[in-house]
């Protein structure tokens, strides 16, 4: 028989005396790893040592998740085949030592810290993914439990030193929760892709538009014309001499306009007749269709030295003067998290942003200057403030005193006794079961109180993909807010890290959600954000033109229900989950403030002195031209280095979808993005003259001269 391997030794110091104790590797139980492996080795080395202490609930949760993750790692490892006994050359262990196989031909377990024989790969890759998702779900639940527990401890104390002590672990727990949620999201995407492959569904990525090849035109001789005597003109005094212009220095924000050679042929004094059929006003959930919204907070507003409700109240007139018609305010209710997105008692409006009295004063200040205050409504989930008999946090207190029946059964962590969820599960908190009539009635009663008593005029619904869209439609239909928009955030179509050109399926998912509400709620246009930031970052402006010649985002498929934006508290601010290129923000605002949809400006950008002037000029142009969410767009160019479009009032009524016919009897504008040269005067766009009214690095906006005053023309 083969000789037994030498026993491993465990060296450690007790006081100043070095000791060596033999650890018999055969006594380590390979079926109970890694939970008891180390403790068994230590007990073998020192039988007089005290037994390990009992683990806490959170430690037990993490240990279970770790065990499952190790097991699933084995499922993903390369398959291992035992070596032939004749070769007798098996190398085992991660410490560089080689161990000969025993007489049975199989390796025996190593001491703690060594490698272990991987299990064979299962034939079905779906089983691998399913196991990984179970591990990720357990890790996410454990991370959520730890984060919520720390948030509760932090919210229950007013001691500054204790708050400082909890701040570090709280941020670590929050980061861990975000990582696990991101991992689960990636696995869900892979699962959907696996199902589509099994069903034979193939998404082919269309090729990018080919590069434009310029070919010289053949020489064409001019057409001879008969001589025409010049028309005599009255004498005009020569213009006053102007000081010489220093052409060696051109300001970075300047724009040089090159006039068309035949501008004199255009009569700008005659305005074309209006369409024979009047175009009805847009049917939109966003007010009257001409709204411009300001997101009035960022991720850190809850930690402001001054209560945030007072900050917005003091800026109400400045917000009105800038041209905003609505302000999206942060979540107003009591919350486990500072930012307000883990609400507990919905009727308690004392939050980290201020007291209920300060909130009422802020709303009153906004309404006094004609601005619609929009509440951030978080009703996908709710944090309980009491435990049930089995120790789970699923008993709600306050005016909405719910129990386990108000919680969906999708996440067993919270012991819900309601029905199954109707959307995507949100791990950090119990998900509300909107299928219960009494739950919906309580929510509608609360929304009526928020509108009629507190004074809100609109709703912004958080995480709407967590429950069916028809419930949102029911809440909006019952309360009739002035504006209503939902956060339907799903990932764009990526090929690894490369954004695909075709995002039709992405914007279709947003379209379907809006349609499921009965059409009474708009949605934030994440499709336009994803395409636009990729286009301006890489100068790939062909991305902004879809296969039908319309804007490629959601604003090109249902513009009256698209709320465009560049950044919000999640994607930007201090979180930076999906940031827009900072140096290209002026280009981004030149797009969303001149295109269909309801544009939203982020508070940080409006207060940034480097952006404030550009944003103000673009808002002024949109208001002066009178663009609404149903604006018509004619894309003039979309290629590498240049995007150009003519945007104006629609000449025909379109209930859903984009419009390309522009009413030239009303003001309109032209705009361009990118470093390449383009001017509407060179192409005689709209058969009129155009004047640059705003420009910057990589962007410019023109207005129709026919509708400018004499002062504006001469400016």
Write up this protein.
The strands form five sheets. The chain has an eight-stranded parallel beta barrel. It has a five-stranded antiparallel beta sheet with strand order 15-16-17-19-18, with helices on one face. A two-stranded antiparallel sheet has the order 1-2. It has 15 helices and 19 strands. Helix 2 runs antiparallel to helix 3, helix 8 packs across helix 9 and helix 12 runs parallel beside helix 14 (609-625). The longest helix is centred in the first third of the chain and has 39 residues, at 160-198. Strand 1 and strand 2 form a beta hairpin. By secondary structure, it is an alpha/beta fold. It is 30% helix and 12% strand.
In short:
The strands form five sheets. An eight-stranded parallel barrel has the order 3-4-5-8-9-12-13-14. Strands 15-16-17-19-18 form a five-stranded antiparallel sheet, with helices on one face. A two-stranded antiparallel sheet has the order 1-2. Strand 1 and strand 2 (17-23) form a beta hairpin. It is built from 15 helices and 19 strands.
Percent of residues in helices: 25-40%
| Mean pLDDT across every amino acid position | 82
SS strand fraction: 5-15%
Quickly count the helices: 15
By DSSP, the count of extended strands is 19
For the biggest sheet, the summary is: 8 strands, parallel, barrel
List the uncertain runs.
Answer: 6-38, 44-49, 72-117, 235-256, 258-263
Question: Reading side by side through the largest sheet, how are the strands ordered?
Answer: 3-4-5-8-9-12-13-14
Radius of gyration: 33 Å
What does the overall shape look like?
A: globular
By secondary-structure content and strand pairing, the structural class works out as alpha/beta
- Oligomer classification: single chain
Distance between the termini: 101 Å
